[in-house]
């Protein structure tokens, strides 16, 4: 029904494409708009879905993790492609720490004995699943450890799950926990377990989330079979990403390095991922309370929490070695502003073969580079320098891109107009995260790129699915009335993080998906055979990504007046502040209600209302927080952005004498950085966007204030209100100056 309704909406919307077209592209005059559109038509004509598919097959032909023979071969292959396309390309190498496993043992020692397989079998239907040099199933950055203990099931291993355990009187101190993948970034699970005293952590994929409960399993269908395992990093990236031994500096050969055991973003307990085949006997042996309804997965038994007779032995240790990370950097010099850089990036390393993650995105990037190379052969050149990057060592913790940014940060802050990122890509809907001042740019591009399935614009298709998924009639009506594409805030999990959150460089993260669900993620089954069948058959969304990201790069490279509209930023931040006010009010009300319940009943919040439990202590009341500095700063920002918009409009009418204005525009985001960084994680300097301390990839907007409120640290919340207000005032003064 949802698909039929969406198709009906799309049919109703399909006539609007021409109506939505405008005479000029923002940042271009009428004359230059015509030239730009002709250029983009030639760019599109060079793009080939067939060639994208061949590159995906070629680059995912062998395992190519960090430091492997295949990894070096893929980097050199990409280098030669860039050179063949006419780009000035080189490899910049960093020496980064990358652990690989020596020992992996997981066994149940009571009440029965079971030794985990810890192995994904080769499949005849998957041509690359039987190769040598595959990394075994493990979590990078687990500590070395040999532990035996009682087992406790902790659901998804999030802070709120431990609140449930506490209400049941269950402690994980001195025990080994088993958590489900999902609902958060994987590194949060062992982090929270360690904070609660656990001595080890096992993470498994429940079939309810991405296995047979969702659909046919691989190779018959797209979903995870019983042996599939998600590898992945558990580095505490919310402290800082990149090489753990070289925070804030590039990991060059002679860089000063921390002692590994002192690196603050590495955990102290052993961690291991397993399949649901290996998880089943462990979970089935658990005793203790029956798990709450929303904790239960799809395995064929009753889920219990433990502890009890079930004990497990977990042993892992690693080779802790420096490995070369090969970043491929290709440049196409700008004809007018060679010292203004438009940077486009996608990583090339994978946990195994990585057809989807990351090669589907890398193939689109290379297709853009080839098409641009063909345009240059005709005599055209970009006005600003294009820098196309294929990053290494993204999977272990954004190592390649972070080290490059830290190594070149002064030059990048002076020269970089925008960083445009992509990663894995598949069939479905356009999604964009990034700097909100670039929302107009993305809106215009989304209305001009055609969706391969429906033949309407990707803007119209996204609007239709948003309306279909809206929870009520009002939300549906609002979705249908939208005239701009919503750019989401940036968390973490891909190579944009160091650009925007550390260096304050305007950034975008672009990709398609939503109709490419499956269970291959970070397994040996992330292969060409899987991708070509289930993720993007025909590779048409690879072309859509190239058209979208390529347009963003070309427009930012050629615009006479860079299309930054800080009014969009001001409106977005205003919504964030309203949300903080509402969050504080709701917390105050809920705290008062909880305390009233405790006072009236003597016990509260027990799972079984018939079983009286010891009354929890009342929580401290939520005090008054003074948000006036933020509200006043927003008023100033509104005035300065309106003033700048008028100056921008006047300048863009002719496109002349805009060099100084443009340079000021792309450096404006840096005004939102704070010198001291966020509390307890100073690497993150952006006051508006950061990965959440307990969400990992998930973003926290105005994180210094929001997380202080969530942790009920009222003194810090008030201090951070002042810090954020000061950064907004700094931005306002900066914009006012360039808008005079």
Determine the CATH topology of the largest domain.
Aminopeptidase
DSSP helix fraction:
40-55%
Shape: globular
Rg is: 26 Å
Fourth-tier CATH superfamily name of the largest domain: Zn peptidases
> How many domain units?
3
Mean pLDDT: 94
The CATH C-level class name of the largest domain: Alpha Beta
Name the structural class: alpha/beta
What is the count of helical runs?
Answer: 22
| End-to-end gap | 54 Å
CATH architecture of the largest domain: 3-Layer(aba) Sandwich
Given as residue ranges, the uncertain stretches (5+ residues, pLDDT < 50) are 1-8, 11-20, 603-607
The portion of residues forming beta strands comes to 15-25%
- As an assembly, this protein is single chain
Query: How many DSSP E strands?
Result: 16
* Largest beta-sheet characterization: 12 strands, mixed
Can you offer a commentary on this structure?
The chain has 740 residues and is an alpha/beta fold. It has three domains: 24-96 and 322-447 and 489-564, Aminopeptidase (3-Layer(aba) Sandwich); 109-317, Glucose Oxidase, domain 1; 567-738, Transcription Elongation Factor S-II, Chain A (Up-down Bundle), CATH 1.20.930.40. The chain is 40% helix and 16% strand. It has helices at 2-13, 16-20, 30-46, 49-59, 69-84, 159-167, 188-195, 207-210, 276-284, 355-377, 399-415, 439-446, 458-469, 473-481, 497-502, 528-535, 540-558, 566-601, 628-654, 659-666, 703-710, 714-738; strands at residues 88-110, 114-115, 139-140, 145-153, 176-180, 200-204, 232-233, 271-274, 311-332, 337-347, 384-391, 416-421, 428-434, 507-514, 689-691, 699-701. Strands 1, 2, 4, 5, 6, 8, 9, 10, 11, 12, 13 and 14 form a twelve-stranded mixed sheet that branches. The protein has a two-stranded parallel ribbon with strand order 3-7. Helix 13 packs antiparallel against helix 14. The N and C termini lie far apart (54 Å). Residues 1-8, 11-20 and 603-607 have low confidence and may be disordered.
